[in-house]
Design goal:
Strand content of chain B: 5-15%
Order of helices and strands of chain B: HHHEEEHHHH
Structural class of chain A: alpha/beta
Shape of chain A: globular
Oligomer: heterodimer
Distance between the termini of chain A: 53 Å
Largest sheet of chain B: 3 strands, antiparallel
Order of helices and strands of chain A: HEHEHEHHEHEHEHEHEHEHEH
Number of strands of chain B: 3
Structural class of chain B: mainly alpha
Strand order of the largest sheet of chain B: 1-2-3
Number of strands of chain A: 10
Largest sheet of chain A: 5 strands, parallel
Strand content of chain A: 5-15%
Radius of gyration of chain A: 19 Å
Largest interface: A-B, 17 and 26 residues
Number of helices of chain B: 7
Number of helices of chain A: 12
Strand order of the largest sheet of chain A: 1-5-4-2-3
Distance between the termini of chain B: 29 Å
């Protein structure tokens, strides 16, 4: 039986109200056998410090990335991960995490590569839960193994590779890194020097919308009206356009991907997970420096 | 301190690498929780501390060298337990050791703990960076003492 949508009025304004849940909704569904709560953080030990009762940890480095190829795990490994996390194909997954749900949104995006139907985010993430005073636990729940099919990862619908980006010129590109990374002043994100690139700047024609513009100070998503004003009003995007978003390694851009896809209803939006750590180091591709977007480049074969 | 730094380090890397991945995380969490608080002379003067830029979370360190003995001080927020754990390991091994012991301590030590599997190689780079900066401070302060 499908798990009911959180009826919160704020969510009803979004294109897909069913993809968000509030702290209150989650508290009422802690015991719901059709719901599995997943914590996904930047800091791999935060779950051990304390987590939402009954939740399981899925870490992007350790669980979602293939250890050898720079890619995500395959269908077989995903089946094993889902089953040991107590998730079946029809389970409702609620993901939450630190840093305004960066990594939670990233995990959600990877779950969608495998076509998992019902994945939701906890609005406000780990911080919202903590601030509600509902409490964390260190107890790791005894899970019943899930039953999951081997699903082939779909790398076409919501994922873009560098060749897709080269073919995409003329359509909107969204750069969601910091303004300094966008202009080329920095080759890495503030505080993240180990994920640098040889060149600083952005993919020509990309517009800059730092990811954090989509969230309030309390880490919850901004309202539909506020998001429309930024992405449609200020940046001039339209929901029927084909959009590719990128950042540095694809995690902050999966957060913006989530906003465009589910909160604003963009049908055709992809995340370029190679992002600047690939493009900024790639032989033979153009970049643009400075605060302006730059022109569509003339590509040589 | 009865054990030499090498014995201590070897024992710790044995404990870590022989444990399961989940246990390694538990050990790391213990180090995180046991990281000594900053003494007030540093807690009240964050400007004295050096930021470890290579770490994703804000972590600061400071080294004192007094009559050939190295004292290490770290500060990292509770929301960054992995970083605190790295600092705790280094503090437990290096605090109170001689300058020579600290300077000859292997730069590759973080790789011997089996943590790459548990926390990922990228995150582990933060611990190497802490060790590098700590040793550099010891070198600088040792020469200050001599001059």
């Amino acid at each position: 039986m499908p798990v009911a949508t959180d009826p919160k009025a704020k969510f009803a304004e979004y294109a897909h109200p069913e993809v968000l849940v509030s702290v209150e909704w989650l508290a009422e569904n802690l015991q719901n056998p059709d719901v599995v709560i997943v914590e996904s953080d930047e800091d791999v030990l935060l779950y051990e410090v304390g987590h939402i009762p009954g939740s399981v940890k899925i870490d992007w480095h350790v669980d979602l990335n293939d250890p050898v190829t720079r890619n995500y795990i395959d269908g077989e490994a995903f089946k094993a991960l889902m089953e040991r996390s107590g998730i079946s194909r029809d389970t409702t997954i609620v993901v939450y995490g630190d840093k305004s749900n960066w990594w939670a949104a990233y995990a959600l995006w990877v779950f969608k590569l495998f076509g998992h139907a019902d994945v939701r985010l906890l609005d406000g993430g780990r911080q919202a839960w903590i601030e509600s005073g509902k409490g964390l636990t260190r107890e790791v729940a005894d899970l019943q193994m899930g039953s999951y099919p081997i699903v082939e990862r779909d790398d076409k619908t919501i994922r873009a590779f560098r060749d897709d980006v080269l073919k995409h010129f003329g359509n909107p590109l969204l750069d969601i890194r910091s303004p300094q990374e966008y202009s080329g002043e920095r080759t890495h994100m503030p505080d993240y020097p180990q994920e640098g690139a040889l060149r600083g700047g952005h993919i020509p024609t990309a517009v800059s919308v730092p990811w954090a513009r989509a969230v309030n100070e309390d880490q919850t998503f901004k309202t539909r009206e506020d998001l429309d004003a930024i992405y449609l009003g200020e940046k001039g995007l339209a929901a029927d356009q084909s959009v590719i978003a990128y950042c540095r390694i694809g995690e902050r851009s999966s957060h913006s991907w989530f906003v465009l896809k589910y909160l604003l209803g963009f049908e055709n939006v992809r995340n370029y997970d190679g992002s600047w750590t690939e493009w900024g180091n790639l032989v033979g591709v153009p970049i643009h420096k400075g605060e302006d977007a730059g022109e569509v480049p003339v590509l040589k074969n | 301190m009865t054990q030499s730094i090498d014995e201590n380090a070897a024992e710790l890397s044995k404990d870590f690498s022989e444990a399961s991945v989940r246990e390694r995380l538990e050990f790391l969490l213990e180090f995180s929780e046991n990281l000594p608080e900053l003494p007030s002379r540093y807690a009240d003067h964050p400007d004295l501390l050096e930021r470890v830029e290579e770490c994703q979370s804000p972590v600061y360190l400071f080294v004192e060298v007094d009559r050939n003995v190295v004292r290490t001080f770290f500060s990292a927020p509770a929301e960054s337990p992995t970083t605190r754990g790295f600092a705790g390991i280094l503090s437990s091994l290096l605090d109170g050791r001689s300058v020579a012991d600290v300077l000859s301590f292997s730069d590759d030590y973080p790789d011997t703990l089996g943590l790459a599997e548990a926390v990922s190689p990228l995150r582990l780079r933060g611990m190497r960076a802490m060790l590098f900066r700590l040793k550099r401070q010891v070198l600088e302060k040792q020469s200050d003492t001599i001059s």
